[in-house]
Design goal:
Blueprint (H helix, E strand, L loop, with lengths): L10 H11 L6 E3 L6 E3 L3 E4 L2 E5 H8 L2 H9 L11
Antiparallel strand pairs: 1-2, 3-4
The structure holds zinc ion.
Length: 83
């Protein structure tokens, strides 16, 4: 499976939201792959960073757990925050 394009521009917004709201199910996060907005219960991430939805996780990595291991917790760093 071809690895997806990561839309890093949503990364800091997700981190900020997660830092403030944690597992509040009313807050929407943006998947870095498909850019769909979903609540935290349909996302995987590393503490809010590198957040992707469970559907993309399954589609591109086979399972959410694999996605966490191969993407969220990988050493590949998100881009620096702008501004
Ligand atoms: Zn997605």
């Amino acid at each position: 499976m071809k690895k997806p394009k990561i839309n890093w521009e949503f990364n800091w917004q997700n981190i900020d939201n997660f830092t403030k709201h944690k597992f509040d199910g009313t807050i929407e996060y943006t998947c870095l792959i498909c850019k769909e907005k979903k609540d935290i219960f349909h996302m995987v991430s590393d503490g809010g960073a590198k957040m992707i939805c469970t559907l993309c996780a399954k589609k591109y990595y086979g399972s959410p757990l694999t996605a966490v291991n191969e993407f969220c917790l990988s050493r590949k760093r998100p881009r620096k925050r702008k501004g």
